[in-house]
Specification:
Low-confidence stretches: none
Radius of gyration: 16 Å
Number of helices: 6
Number of domains: 1
């Protein structure tokens, strides 16, 4: 039941971020415990989606599950790198956890929506990237306190990393490193 309450709070927090409300942070636990909760939810949902997507071919083995989780974790790495490099280039008051915790819930949304869209219509993923970019822009404006230009650069950088890293790994390593959207 706590999982559903946490997800409900995250949705309400994201609605507050999009609306530009000043009290958006009260919906998230912006601490190490909140980060661990968001990471655990991400991995849990990724495992469920991996099992559901591969249901027609049988339950995946441990290696396939590990590869799937690794592939999905690239979105977290893209978010972390986007936050790190933006904060590095634009020093300010933006706290890392203030950006990362809500950002992880955006990545959970991306994981869920991306899985559904890839099963229904692969090209629709490009629309999802635009939506995710808009969410990250709002996150940069509210949580980072960045200007429009910096928030836009953060959103573009993160989406480019999100899209580019799996493709690059796929070209370098092969299908083992490619995530299932």
């Amino acid at each position: 039941m706590k999982i559903l309450l946490t997800l409900r709070d995250a949705v309400q927090g994201w609605i507050a971020i999009i609306r530009g409300e000043a009290d958006w942070a009260r919906h998230f636990t912006l601490s190490l415990a909140g980060l661990m909760t968001a990471l655990a939810l991400f991995v849990f949902i990724a495992l469920i989606l991996i099992a559901l997507v591969t249901l027609d071919t049988g339950l995946p083995g441990l290696i396939e599950i590990a590869n799937g989780v690794f592939g999905q974790a690239l979105s977290i790495l893209a978010l972390v790198l986007g936050i790190f490099f933006t904060r590095r280039m634009v020093p300010g008051e933006a706290r890392f956890l203030d950006l990362l915790v809500p950002g992880l819930y955006a990545m959970i949304f991306y994981l869920l929506a991306g899985t559904v869209l890839s099963l229904v219509s692969g090209p629709a993923l490009m629309l999802l990237w635009v939506v995710l970019g808009c969410l990250l822009y709002c996150l940069g404006r509210r949580a980072g306190g960045w200007t429009r230009g910096v928030a836009a650069a953060f959103a573009v950088l993160t989406v480019v990393l999100l899209v580019g890293m799996p493709v690059t790994l796929y070209m370098l390593v092969g299908p083992v490193a490619a995530p299932t959207p």
